Fold this sequence. Notes:
Pfam families: 2-Hacid_dh (PF00389), 2-Hacid_dh_C (PF02826). By secondary structure, the protein is α/β, with parallel strands linked by helices. The chain has helices at residues 3-9, 12-21, 38-46, 61-64, 86-90, 99-118, 121-131, 137-140, 158-167, 183-189, 196-202, 222-227, 245-254, 295-310; strands at 49-52, 72-75, 94-97, 149-154, 172-177, 192-193, 205-208, 233-236, 258-261, 281-283. α13 links the parallel β8 (233-236) and β9 (258-261).
Amino acid sequence: xxxxxxxxxxxxxxxxxxxxxxxxxxxxxxxxxxxxxxxxxxxxxxxxxxxxxxxxxxxxxxxxxxxxxxxxxxxxxxxxxxxxxxxxxxxxxxxxxxxxxxxxxxxxxxxxxxxxxxxxxxxxxxxxxxxxxxxxxxxxxxxxxxxxxxxxxxxxxxxxxxxxxxxxxxxxxxxxxxxxxxxxxxxxxxxxxxxxxxxxxxxxxxxxxxxxxxxxxxxxxxxxxxxxxxxxxxxxxxxxxxxxxxxxxxxxxxxxxxxxxxxxxxxxxxxxxxxxxxxxxxxxxxxxxxxxxxxxxxxxxxxxxxxxxxxxxxxxxxxxxxxxxxxx
Length: 328
C-alpha cells in the first residue's frame, strides 16, 4: 500500500492484532514490487500473505515471481481491480476485501442525502438564509417530507443493498433496478424490482450504486435524466462516469432537478463548473467512503480475515473471480 494509506489505516491497535496473527514486519512497506531492496526481496520471497491497501501496485506475473510462497491477499480497502490481475487467479491465490466494511459509510451518507433531499433541506436553508425571517413552510414547501415518497436504487450492490436495509424503518416506497436482481432477491430486500426508465420516472430520489463498467457509462444520459420528475433529486456516490455530466448540468441550471454528488466526471471538476455554485446541488469531495476514523474499520475487517485464514477458516468476504466483472 502507499505510505499515506498505511499511516491512515494502521493504528497501533491494528498492528498489535496483526502481530498476534502473523509474523509481520511492521516497518516494511512495499510500494514497488520491483524495487532493488535486499530486505524487501527476502521478505517477499518468504511471504505467505500480503496485507494490501490503496496504492498497491499490480500483482502481475513479474511481481508474483518474487513471491513463490504467496497463498493469499487480504485487502484493507474496497475494489481489488486495481491490483489483482488474472495471474493471481491463475496461481490459485485467494483474495479477500474489506469492501463490505467500506460500503457502510457510503450507505450512511446516501441515506442522509435521501432524507434531506425529500425534506428540501438545500432549498429551505437558502430561503431562510435570504429572508432572515420566519418562513411560511405550508406555502413555501407544501409537498416536503419523506412520508410515502419513492426512492429508486440503481444497483443492488453491497452499498445498494445496505441503503435498502437502512431505509426499511421509513415510510418509503423503494424501487430497485439491477440486471442480476431477481424477484426473490427483491422481496428479501423489501424493494420493487423495475426497469431503469420506470425507476427514473417514478422516483422522487434516484440513488446510483452500480459499478463502473463499459455498459454503465452514461447510464443516466440526457434521455434518462429527462424522464425524472420535476423537483426530483439525483444522488451519485458511485462513479462520475455513470452520469453524463454535461447533460446533468443542463438540467440542473434550469432548476428542474436537484443533485447530491460525491463523484463526478472528471473527479475534480474544472474551477468554472457551475456545479460548485448552483443552489440545488450539494457537491462533496469524495467523502462518502471510509474517511478519518472510519478507515480503522477497514483495517479491523482485514485483520479479521487474516485471523480466519490463520485458523484455516474460509474468508467471510472472499472475492469471487467469476463475478468480479460485475463489481466496482
